[in-house]
Specification:
Elements lengths: L1 H19 L7 H20 L2 E2 L6 E2 H16 L3 H4 L1 H9 L11 H8 L19 H12 L6 H10 L2 H26 L2 E2 L5 E2 L2 H11 L3 H39 L6 H17 L2 H30 L1 H16 L8 H17 L5 H6 L7 H8 L1 H21 L5 E7 L2 E4 L5 E2 L2 H11 L4 H31 L3 H20 L2 H14 L1 H27 L1
Antiparallel strand pairs: 1-2, 3-4, 5-6, 6-7
Helix pairs in contact: 1-12, 1-21, 2-22, 3-9, 3-23, 5-17, 7-13, 7-18, 7-20, 8-15, 8-19, 9-14, 9-15, 9-17, 9-18, 9-23, 10-11, 10-23, 11-12, 11-20, 11-21, 11-22, 11-23, 12-20, 12-21, 13-14, 13-18, 13-20, 15-22, 18-19, 19-20, 20-21
């Protein structure tokens, strides 16, 4: 049956090629974009409804997101900082031997005549992947083009000061990741074959049911699942293929009106080959690709920063000074810089969106908090390290006045020398080339790798949500994967502005249902955390 699904999937991808070269091939990208743009505009306005007045208006979703992250940081006494080294030890396997220890809770289950309702069906199964694989899968879903393209957008619109607020959001977001991923493991389902089903859909519905709010939990979990499917099609897929296609088209000077669609089809084939195998195949790929691509990109940025070492302190000075007193050209002043930083950080590390909890739920552990600690490393790697390095490269690049901060149209900035507007990954590419001509070709490789790894991880997030809504059958799996691959093609065909609006809104829409679950259940996390710390101490 599995081979049949694989064959059908490849046949559908081939059909996309035939369609692309058919009667609608000429100008197909424009037709797709015209149809997609109104949807992106409407959804963006709905999700980013603002509260406040004039330039001091703030999207309500960001208030919830950052308010929750700040609350969790204080409630758990800055677990994001105190337990940072413990988290590294867990990933390295220092505490793996603790998995063989039976806690009092497990002994009670083993001695009882019947299992506890809504817990693991088979105590011999504890998950599908190890801590590092779970982290690699989740990191591959977050460390992606948000670190390259979205950082450029944030700085172009909000100025250098947006970088500071991006880092603040990343540090606070570490606490949110700890909470949601601990809950993801605690409330997951594992069937008799060891297949894991977890994420906000499960901890919202099961956790609120424990508290006597079963109906509310069911409704909210369904809303999350719907949004997560949309996010997997948007930010987790369409945006990735869009920016990968943009780099390929720009670097190789492709002028075909349907180039985006062709590249999207090729990208869909590569993604489809991996996602057919499920979480184990995805984890096997990401544990190899993620360390390599992260090291590759970090090394590239370090080379550029090393060449401009004398300017690093000036760039940091700009970032700090303009975080609190941005120049008059920046739209919205301090609030504008803050909003751009928070918004792009949220898209980049997804803390509060709950998506990563789906990947971490598949970990092989009996201690939920162990994976919560592992998860708090994600925003640090993603935002505090990689996004900051990208930001420094762009700020140094613009010290010569390459573009005007705040002069943005459709998420693109005006290049003063050429008069053209560029944005996203192409702006970062120009910053790379300014130090070493031709270096942008290495960036293009990194972009494609980032896009590929993010897409395969998000396919798993969306599939888990799809299964939650429509059941766990081969036919439903295949249906989702086909739709996912169609959006891979669509994303490569539409404009950056359309795909950013749709992607931003879809991913941040997850915050609303997910934060309801976190604010109801955060005390459960405290109990899991204390239990794990006691086992480590003993």
């Amino acid at each position: 049956m599995k081979s049949l699904s694989t064959r059908n999937l490849l046949l559908i991808i081939i059909a996309l090629f035939i369609f692309q070269n058919g009667c609608f091939a000429q100008g197909l990208d424009e037709k797709i974009n015209d149809a997609f743009m109104p949807i992106a505009d409407w959804w963006d306005e709905l999700v980013f409804t603002e509260v406040g007045y004039g330039d001091y208006s703030v999207p309500f979703v960001l208030i919830i997101l950052m308010g929750g992250a700040t609350f969790f940081s204080f409630y758990f006494r800055f677990v994001n900082i105190r337990e940072f080294w413990t988290a590294i030890k867990v990933v390295r396997g220092k505490y793996d031997h603790l998995e063989s220890i039976e806690t009092n809770e497990q002994l009670q289950v083993n001695l009882s005549d019947e299992d506890i309702v809504d817990t693991i069906k088979d105590e011999s199964h504890q998950g599908e992947v190890n801590h590092f694989q779970a982290l690699a899968t989740a990191v591959s879903g977050t460390v992606g083009l948000g670190n390259i393209a979205m950082v450029a957008v944030a700085i172009g619109i909000g100025g250098p000061g947006a970088t500071f607020w991006m880092i603040v959001a990343g540090i606070l977001g570490m606490s949110t990741k700890f909470v949601e991923c601990t809950l993801g493991v605690k409330y997951r389902d594992i069937d008799a074959d060891g297949n894991v089903y977890g994420g906000p859909m499960y901890y919202i519905s099961k956790g609120l049911k424990e508290m006597g709010f079963a109906k509310i939990g069911k409704v909210v979990s369904v809303i999350f699942a719907v949004f997560c499917i949309g996010a997997s099609f948007g930010g987790g897929n369409a945006f990735q293929s869009n920016q990968a296609a943009a780099q390929i088209i720009t670097r190789f000077g492709i002028e075909s009106p349907s180039a985006g669609t062709i590249i999207g089809c090729v990208f869909a084939v590569l993604v489809g080959i991996v996602i057919i195998g499920g979480i184990k195949r995805i984890a096997q790929v990401t544990e190899k690709v993620v360390p390599f691509m992260a090291a590759f990109y970090v090394l590239s940025t370090l080379i550029i920063l090393g060449m401009n070492f004398s300017l690093i302190d000036d760039a940091i000075g700009q970032i700090l000074s303009e975080a609190f007193s941005p120049r008059a050209t920046i739209v919205g002043g301090i609030v504008g810089a803050m909003i751009q930083g928070f918004r792009r950080a949220a898209f980049s590390n997804e803390a509060g969106a709950g998506s990563a909890a789906i990947a971490h739920s598949a970990v092989n552990t009996k201690f939920a908090a162990s994976e919560g600690l592992v998860a708090l490393l994600e925003p640090f790697i993603d935002t505090v390290v990689i996004c900051s390095m990208t930001a420094l490269v762009i700020v140094i690049f613009n010290m010569s006045g390459a573009f005007e901060y705040g002069d943005s149209l459709n998420n693109e900035v005006l290049m003063i020398a050429t008069g053209e507007r560029v944005g996203g990954v192409n702006l970062t590419s120009m910053a790379f080339d300014s130090s070493i001509p031709g270096f942008s070709y290495l960036l293009a490789i990194a972009v494609v790798m980032f896009a590929f790894s993010t897409a395969i991880s998000w396919s798993y997030y969306g599939l888990q949500s799809w299964k939650y809504l429509f059941g766990k059958s081969k036919a439903m799996d295949l249906t989702y994967k086909v739709i996912f691959l169609i959006f891979t093609v669509l994303g490569a065909a539409v404009t950056l502005d359309a795909v950013i609006k749709f992607s931003d809104a879809m991913i941040l829409a997850l915050v609303f249902p997910n934060m309801i679950g976190l604010l109801f259940l955060f005390k459960k996390v405290g109990a899991e955390y204390r239990k794990y710390k006691e086992v480590i101490k003993d």
